Amino acid sequence: MNRRDFLKNTAGAALFTGAIPLLKSNSLAAQRKLDKIGLQLYSVRQLMQQDFTGTLTRVAQAGYDEVEFAGYYNQSPEAVKALLQELKITSPANHSQYNTLKEDTIEQTIAAAKIIGHSYLILPSLPMEFPRAGGQRPPQGSQTGQTLPADQQPPKPEGQQGQPPQQPQPRPRPQMPAFTLEKVKEFAAIFNRVGETCKKAGLGFAYHNHTMEFQKIEGSEDIMYDVLLKETNPDYVGYELDLGWAVAAGADPLAYFEKFPGRFPFFHVKDMNAEKQSVIEGQGIIDFASIFAQSAKAGVKYYIVEYEGREEPMASVEACVKYLKNLTF
C-alpha cells in the first residue's frame, strides 16, 4: 500500500466530519527540505498596521525568505521595494481585492506590483460582496494596496502597558448558499480576464480558496473548485491552495494534484486541529510532508505560511518557520 492509499483509507477515522484529513505519517524516508519559506503578512496584520518597518524586520529575522502582502498599509510601492531590498527578502505576490483588479483599476495594481517586484497577483476570495460580522467593511484601500488619505486611515491598535496588541480572531466566514453553475462560470470568466491581463504585463495570477469553494454546485454533484479549475485557462490562471481550509472542507489535496497537475503555484501552509482551528505548524493534524512530497506534481513554487490562530502572532509565526525549516519530506 502506498502513502496516498494509506491516507485515503484513514478517512473512516477522520477527525473532521466528512473530511479526508492528511494525518501525520512517518511511513516513507524523508529526503528533502524546503528551500524558501514565505509568510502571508495577514498573519501579523495588527503588528503591520502598528509598525510596518519593525514588523517586516522581525519577520525577516525570524528566518522567512519571502513575504506575501495583503495590502501595503499606506506605504508607497517604492518604499515597500526599498525595505524589502534592505532586509534581503522578496515578495512573490500580493492578495489584491477584486476592486483593484477590475478593468478600470487593474493597470494601476499591476504597475505597483512591478515596482515592488511581485511575480503574481492573487485574488483572495470570490469576486462578489459577502456580508461581514456587524455589517462593517474595512476602509477602502486598507487591504487593497491603495493608499488612503491621512484622515481616512484606520486607527492604530493600542497595546496595554507597552505590550503588542492581541491578534483579533478572524471574523466567522459566512455560510453561503450553493452557487449555480452559471454563477461559477461567471467567476471563472473573471479569473480568465484578470489572468490574461496579468500575463500580458508579465505577471502571473492565482486564486486563493477558503472552504466554500469545496461545496457542491446547486442542483449538481459537481464541486465548485473543480469547475473553476476546469473552466479557467491554465495559461492565465493558477491556484493558491490553502491547505488548511481545503482539508477543513473535506478535500484531499493529493487527489487534486492527480486530477489537475501543475495548477497550484502557491501553497498556503496552514495547520488545523480537529476543531478546524488554525494552529502553529506541527501542532495540528495535516501531514505537510506527504503534501510537499508531491510538490512537482502540484506545480508549487511558493510555500507561504498563514497563521490565523489564537496565540500571540509574532511568536506563532516564528514557531511556524522554525518547524518548517526542520521538516523533511
Verbal overview:
There is one protein chain. By secondary structure, the chain is of the alpha/beta class. The chain has a single domain, classed as Divalent-metal-dependent TIM barrel enzymes (TIM Barrel, Alpha-Beta Barrel). 33% of the residues lie in helices and 12% in strands. The chain is built from twelve helices and ten strands. It has an eight-stranded parallel barrel with strand order 1-2-3-4-5-6-7-10. The protein has a two-stranded antiparallel ribbon with strand order 8-9. It is globular and about 50 Å long. It starts with a helix and ends with a helix. Mean pLDDT is 84; it is low at 1-21 and 130-172.
| Helix share, percent | 25-40%
Spatial separation of the terminal alpha carbons: 18 Å
> Considering the protein shown, what is the CATH homologous superfamily?
Divalent-metal-dependent TIM barrel enzymes
What name does the CATH topology carry? TIM Barrel
Percent strand: 5-15%
Supply the number of structural domains. Answer: 1
Shape annotation: globular
Q: SSE order, as H and E?
A: HEHHEHEHEHEHEHHEEEHHEH
Averaged pLDDT, please?
84
Describe, in short, the structure shown.
With 329 residues, this protein is an alpha/beta fold.
Quick tags:
single chain, about 325 residues, alpha/beta, TIM Barrel, eight-stranded parallel barrel, two-stranded antiparallel sheet, 12 helices, 10 strands, about 35% helix, globular, disordered N terminus
Set down the secondary structure blueprint.
Layout: H1 3-9, E1 38-40, H2 45-50, H3 52-62, E2 66-69, H4 77-87, E3 90-95, H5 106-116, E4 120-123, H6 181-200, E5 204-208, H7 224-231, E6 238-242, H8 243-248, H9 253-259, E7 266-269, E8 271-272, E9 278-279, H10 288-292, H11 295-298, E10 302-305, H12 313-326
Parallel strand pairs: 1-2, 1-10, 2-3, 3-4, 4-5, 5-6, 6-7, 7-10
Antiparallel strand pairs: 8-9
Helix pairs in contact: 4-5, 6-7
